[in-house]
Amino acid sequence: MATDLKRIGERARKEPNLAFTSLYHHIADVDNLRACYHQLKADKARGVDGVSKEEYGKNLEENLQLLSEMLSRMGYRPQPSLRSYIPKPGSDRKRPLGISSFEDKLVELSVKRTLELIYEEAFEDVSYGYRPGRSQHQCLDALGRTIQQERVSYVVEADIKGFFDNVNHAWMIKFLEHRIGDQRVLRLITRMLKSGIIEDGLVKASERGTPQGSILSPLLSNIYLHYVLDLWFCRRIMKQSRGEAYYFRFADDFLACFQYKSDAESFERRLMVRLEGFNLALSPEKTQSIEFGRFARENAQKRGGKPKEFTFLGFTHYCGKTRYGKFKVKRRTSRKKFGESLRNFTEWAERARRYLTKGEMLRKAKTRLCSTYQHHATRILFKWINRKSQRRSYTWEGFNRALDWVKWPKPNIRKDLNPFRRAEAI
Questions:
Q1: pTM of the model
Q2: Is 233 helix (H, G, I), strand (E, B) or coil?
């Protein structure tokens, strides 16, 4: 089975315009489903069926055989996803998630394993999110190098409003049809997209969107934006720009860099129209075109101001200088992300002091933290441990001895974000 799947990727690479007409048997194959079972983590949230990996595995071979037979005769129908909410960083709103049942997770992963081999050969190098062997660090690295080495003077920062909730199902299937000619696969994906959401005991039909939390959702979103944005920018915008143009995307977060202001402004106008054609829209408050690059600081100072900044992948990027006075892209953790992390830690410490001992609080709080975050988190922990009783538990001297006792971590650089310094921490 593994060899058969590998051949799909090889053929996709050799025949970039081929639409695969025989894929469904890979998805329904028992060996593939078994591999998916072993790949799934056991501690994931349960869906509407309430079944865990351990429970499903008690009669694993029988369950997999029945699932394979259902898939083969097209009798399989996904259950509605269970609606759950998690805090959204920097906002009072919460991010909705859709939790699939365990058997649906198996099928989603089987579809993903099969289609990913085709689309990894088709995707452009400008996309980094949720792809094998790619990460946000690579995206940030490429962005930093481009701004510092190439002729970049303007950056367009854009945000799609509620992307995962507004993916158009009809367009999604049209995009898939470019490479997927097996109608059974398309029918299965359509059923997944329209399986619905169950919330407060009520099932809501899914007319659009792909639920965040689904195993297949990241791949489908990459396929959608590959056709809506990636190909459009690489084959149209770059060729039609007067100067140099560059583009970076991680999932639904993306930005573009330009040499000339007119190209940046033109892209921003055209982007709005482009997205509207695919039932998407920009968030006006999160979309802007700014001057950014080696001349931005000097030009801003002539106007009596400061160079603007932009935020991408949790980091605020700003114009800085090296020790020799040369232009350098510098980064700091986004204030919104940083503040949210500290608020979450404060809430945890306030709750934990009611049911954990001082030693347990110290041990559970011991996580890998950057220096500034560690400084604030240490002070928060000192405050709430001292509120466990009316009598003060620690002086700072005693608290520091307790931190030594639990081997409180010191900052450790795991990834150097300087694009021109390659010193990985050992």
A1: 0.80
A2: helix
